[in-house]
């Protein structure tokens, strides 16, 4: 012990101090400002408990202790400065000016209670702040700026979708000399669903002599291989499977190997649990008549929306992400994103930028940015819709969004600087490309902003305006690519008015995403084994719900 | 009032105030009124003949026997289908399809069905669909909701169609007609000068009277022999994957061959007689001078101005306007393709194979009007 008092004596001193301080205000000797110091008993109990901790943890938590002791009403709070993380012997000379009452508490304990100093004097007299406080303050400014940029972006996209004509320059191309196309279907243990997508593709309205369907069986341990062989025997001219038994695992690696064998310039990619409509292939191929287009992305529509609240929320989020976010970027000639399924790439464009990368955590984002850096455009086709199954369990959802976040972060590290220097992309594409890359870093940044805002407020850097701005913008930007007004606008554009009532629940989903994405981002900072990255990341589906009901058709085969 | 009760009341009121705005949310969550997945398009929405197919199906299921009876009896039959759907079915040419009242007001709301040819009067509005087992001959200045003819449709001058027209073989609209919606034919669509249109589809689409001079014949110019090399292209950013990426602007010299796709981030002019073996895209206006031939597609982020006698083999797409000058062709009989822009202005003597889609308005310019505003060298 260093305080010179025994435990009962210190408790007594604390009780005295609290009794005294609960009835009066304390005037700092040098500032004259008032420091109301309440709830001392609890504070000191916590502080006492912290004695056994290491010095670093103790110092950090002591900050929290002081925060809990501070008044709840910001308007009445006077400025307090905390030399957090600094032991008594390391305190700056300024701490000598702290209130004698506060000093008494510190001195009465061997717990290194941080010194408190009214900062109003510093603020009033123009005296410089402690560097740590200044650092936190300016970090908060930067965070607020970043968050405001994203909110402007989201508002701009939403208003664009609500009031501007959608740009769909290729949707009219229904008559053409259609090029040869290969449809790749990466599959790993997809026995229950592989037959459905093969049937759907064989029924597609695309010249059969121009169509090759290549299911990629990557070391499946179920009956996927046998199911594929059945189709190969029935349609040998169209179904040409690709089997993998070695090499790195994962969708990107599977695509990479299969794409090398593809003989056509246009390659479409569908996950095995999707069921494309008859006209979808032509719609996805049409943009490739534009020689600048390197990739195309269609719209993904959740099918299993009626399972539970999560699936309904994901339906709303997907709508915002595609109907508003992707289409707005298409409208504004920005950077629509290739999403890895219900889309396609131009093989020679992809090969010119290095093909699929085996080590990409999100091969779709990776391909989007390498094509962009190579001067190839990605096109979004809002009318090219295809059903998907969204995760029905929160665990699956968390895994999914973590993988997306890590893929984006990886792409940011790889291509962010290159994008800014790239001469093949326009200024607006650079800006939007960076914002799209950073969309998942908003979550940890936002958490940091919240923490800084609270800490600075208790430190006496009372900037209610900043806090209000941060809170308001946080409300609007947390989540990934579908914020509230985007979701609302998407529901309106889709004509689905009932589900819009679930919008408050979306906040819940976004909060979950916020922490999941933050955790994923932090995990990337830590070293990981390579084997953890190269694996099949699959969204678990309930196959009982997997059979997608195709809307009724009339006698002409038209949708009723 | 006890303190406990007051506290409980305050708590209850607070909870109620918090939950009140969430009532619609909780209601939707509990009652699950809107849980169905969004409808996706399984068939191609852009199938121009879908309305005609649906109508033919409707005729087959409701009127096929009636039409057969009328044809054998060479007579007309009037009736009502459902509550408000009146019809008249005729079994031979020359029978009147308008009642006295309809003739007096110049308007008919009935379905008009015929197992033979239909000869329709002038200055009459047909608000019901029209079906003919053979051909439909429309009068002048008449208005039609929709027509399906198994053989041909021939509209008089200054006619209008409101929704769609489809003929098994040929659709012809005389000068000054305006065809809203979809027009399709199994063989030929021919629009005379001054016609307006939105969406056309046929293996052969002719703009201007068939007697109009065609101008320079597309693709028949001397084949250039000089190959343009990348090093001769100013502002070239890179040559990669068979594509030239050019910054700002590009002027392709006359009478050269380009053996690549071209992407220009500004405007682009292709000189007279040049030949692009790939496709060409410009972010801004794209001008094709007389006699240019493009083997692939021509895509413009703004306007596409196609000079006289040009030929584009693949799709011709522009995000604003397309001007097609006399004698230009798009696609071939063997390689149908698409022309699409917000506005399409075509001179007489232009031929397109496949689909022509003007999102806002399409127009066949009078024979004396120059459709190519670009001053192209």
Layout of helices and strands:
The complex is a heterodimer of chains A (560) and B (377).
Chain A: H1 7-21, E1 26-27, E2 34-35, H2 40-49, H3 55-69, E3 81-82, H4 100-107, E4 116-117, H5 120-125, H6 131-163, E5 181-187, H7 191-202, E6 211-218, H8 224-234, E7 242-244, H9 251-261, E8 266-269, H10 280-285, E9 293-302, H11 309-331, E10 343-346, H12 347-352, H13 363-373, E11 377-388, H14 394-421, H15 427-437, H16 442-458, H17 464-477, H18 484-494, H19 503-525
Parallel strand pairs in A: 5-6, 5-8, 6-7, 9-11
Antiparallel strand pairs in A: 1-2, 3-4, 8-10, 9-10
Helix pairs in contact in A: 2-3, 6-11, 6-16, 6-17, 6-18, 7-8, 11-18, 11-19, 13-14, 14-15, 14-19, 16-17, 16-19
Chain B: H1 3-19, H2 23-31, H3 50-62, H4 64-73, E1 76-81, E2 85-90, H5 100-105, E3 107-108, E4 111-114, E5 118-119, E6 125-126, E7 130-132, E8 136-137, E9 143-149, E10 152-155, E11 160-167, E12 170-173, E13 178-185, E14 188-191, E15 196-207, E16 226-227, E17 236-240, E18 243-246, E19 249-252, E20 256-258, E21 261-264, E22 267-270, E23 275-276, E24 280-282, E25 286-288, E26 293-294, E27 298-300, E28 304-306, E29 311-312, E30 316-318, E31 321-324, E32 329-330, E33 337-346, E34 350-364
Parallel strand pairs in B: 2-4, 3-6, 4-7, 5-8, 6-9, 7-9, 8-10, 9-11, 10-12, 11-13, 12-14, 13-15, 14-15, 16-20, 18-21, 19-22, 20-23, 21-24, 22-25, 23-26, 24-27, 25-28, 26-29, 27-30, 28-31, 29-32, 30-33, 31-33, 32-34, 33-34
Antiparallel strand pairs in B: 1-2, 15-34, 17-18
């Amino acid at each position: 012990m260093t305080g010179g008092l025994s435990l009962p004596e210190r408790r007594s001193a604390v009780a005295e101090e609290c009794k005294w301080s609960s009835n009066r205000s304390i005037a700092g000797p040098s500032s004259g400002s008032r420091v109301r110091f309440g709830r001392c008993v609890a504070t000191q109990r916590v502080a006492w408990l912290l004695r056994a901790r290491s010095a670093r943890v103790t110092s950090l938590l002591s900050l929290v202790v002081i925060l809990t002791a501070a008044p709840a009403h910001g308007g009445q709070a006077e400025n307090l400065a905390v030399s957090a993380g600094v032991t008594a012997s390391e305190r700056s000379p300024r701490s000598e000016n702290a209130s004698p009452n506060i000093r008494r508490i510190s001195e009465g304990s061997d717990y290194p209670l941080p010194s408190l100093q009214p900062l109003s004097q510093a603020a009033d007299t123009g005296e410089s702040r402690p560097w740590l406080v200044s650092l936190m303050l300016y970090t908060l400014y930067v965070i607020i700026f970043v968050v405001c940029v994203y909110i402007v972006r989201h508002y701009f996209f939403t208003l664009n979708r609500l009031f501007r004509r959608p740009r769909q320059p290729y949707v009219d191309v229904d008559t053409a000399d259609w090029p040869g196309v290969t449809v790749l279907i990466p599959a790993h243990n997809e026995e229950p669903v592989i037959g459905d997508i093969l049937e759907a593709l064989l029924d597609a309205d695309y010249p059969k002599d121009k169509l090759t369907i290549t299911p990629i069986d990557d070391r499946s341990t179920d009956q996927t291989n046998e199911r594929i062989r059945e189709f190969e025997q029935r349609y040998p001219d169209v179904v040409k499977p690709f089997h993998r038994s070695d090499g790195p695992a994962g969708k990107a690696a599977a695509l990479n190997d299969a794409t090398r064998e593809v003989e056509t310039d246009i390659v479409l990619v569908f996950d095995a649990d999707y069921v494309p409509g008859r006209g979808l292939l032509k719609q996805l191929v049409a943009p490739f008549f534009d020689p600048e287009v390197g990739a195309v992305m269609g719209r993904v529509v959740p099918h299993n929306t009626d399972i539970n609240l999560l699936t309904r929320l994901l339906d709303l989020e997907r709508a915002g992400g595609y109907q508003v976010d992707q289409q707005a970027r298409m409208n504004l000639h920005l950077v629509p994103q290739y999403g890895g399924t219900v889309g396609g790439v131009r093989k020679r464009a992809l090969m010119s930028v290095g093909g699929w990368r085996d080590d990409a955590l999100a091969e779709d984002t990776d391909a989007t940015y390498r094509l962009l850096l190579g001067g190839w455009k990605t096109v979004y086709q809002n009318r090219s819709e295809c059903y998907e199954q969204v995760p029905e369990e929160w665990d699956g959802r968390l895994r999914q969004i973590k993988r997306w976040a890590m893929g984006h972060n990886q792409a940011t590290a790889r291509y962010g600087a290159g994008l800014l220097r790239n001469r093949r992309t326009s200024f607006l594409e650079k800006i939007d490309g960076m914002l799209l890359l950073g969309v998942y870093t908003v979550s940890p940044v936002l958490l940091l902003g919240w923490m800084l805002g609270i800490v600075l407020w208790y430190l006496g850097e009372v900037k209610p305006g900043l806090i209000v701005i941060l809170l308001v913008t946080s409300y609007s930007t947390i989540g990934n690519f579908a914020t509230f007004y985007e979701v609302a606008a998407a529901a309106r554009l889709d004509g689905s008015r009932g589900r819009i009532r679930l919008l408050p629940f979306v906040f819940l989903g976004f909060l979950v995403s916020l922490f999941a994405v933050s955790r994923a981002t932090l995990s990337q900072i830590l070293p990981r084994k390579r084997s953890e990255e190269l694996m099949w990341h699959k969204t678990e589906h309930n196959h009982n719900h997997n059979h997608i009901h195709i809307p009724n058709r009339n006698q002409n085969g038209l949708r009723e | 009032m006890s303190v406990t009760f007051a506290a409980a009341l305050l708590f209850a009121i607070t909870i109620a105030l918090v939950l009140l705005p969430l009532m619609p949310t909780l209601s939707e969550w509990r009652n699950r009124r809107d849980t169905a997945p969004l409808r996706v398009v399984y068939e191609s929405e852009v199938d121009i003949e879908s309305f005609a197919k649906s109508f033919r199906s409707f005729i087959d299921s409701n009127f096929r026997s009636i039409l057969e009876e009328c044809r054998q009896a060479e007579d007309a039959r009037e009736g009502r289908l459902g509550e408000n759907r009146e019809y008249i079915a005729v079994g031979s040419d020359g029978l009147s399809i308008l009642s006295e009242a309809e003739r007096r007001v110049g308007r008919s709301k009935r379905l008009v069905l015929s197992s033979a040819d239909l000869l329709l009067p002038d200055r009459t509005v047909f608000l019901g669909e029209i079906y003919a087992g053979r051909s439909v001959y429309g009068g002048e200045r008449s208005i039609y909701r929709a027509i399906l003819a198994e053989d041909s449709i021939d509209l008089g001058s200054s006619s209008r169609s409101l929704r769609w027209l489809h003929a098994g073989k040929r659709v012809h609209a005389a000068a000054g007609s305006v065809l809203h919606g979809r027009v399709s034919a199994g063989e030929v669509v021919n629009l005379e000068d001054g016609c307006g249109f939105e969406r056309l589809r046929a293996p052969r689409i002719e703009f201007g009277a068939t007697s109009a001079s065609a101008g320079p014949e597309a693709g028949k110019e001397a084949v250039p022999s000089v190959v343009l090399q990348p090093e001769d292209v100013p502002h070239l950013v890179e040559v990669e994957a068979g594509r030239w990426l050019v910054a700002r602007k590009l002027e392709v010299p006359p009478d050269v061959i380009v053996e690549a796709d071209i992407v220009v981030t500004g405007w682009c002019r292709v000189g007279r007689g040049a030949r692009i073996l790939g496709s060409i895209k410009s972010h801004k206006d794209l001008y094709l001078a007389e006699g240019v031939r493009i083997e692939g597609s021509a895509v413009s982020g703004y306007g596409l101005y196609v000079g006289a006698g040009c030929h584009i083999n693949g799709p011709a797409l522009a995000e604003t306007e397309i001007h097609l000058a006399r004698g230009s062709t798009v696609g071939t009989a063997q390689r149908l393709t698409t022309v699409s822009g917000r506005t399409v202005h075509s001179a007489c003597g232009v031929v397109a194979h496949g689909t022509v889609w003007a999102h806002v308005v399409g127009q066949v310019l009078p024979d004396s009007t120059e459709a190519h505003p670009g001053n192209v060298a």
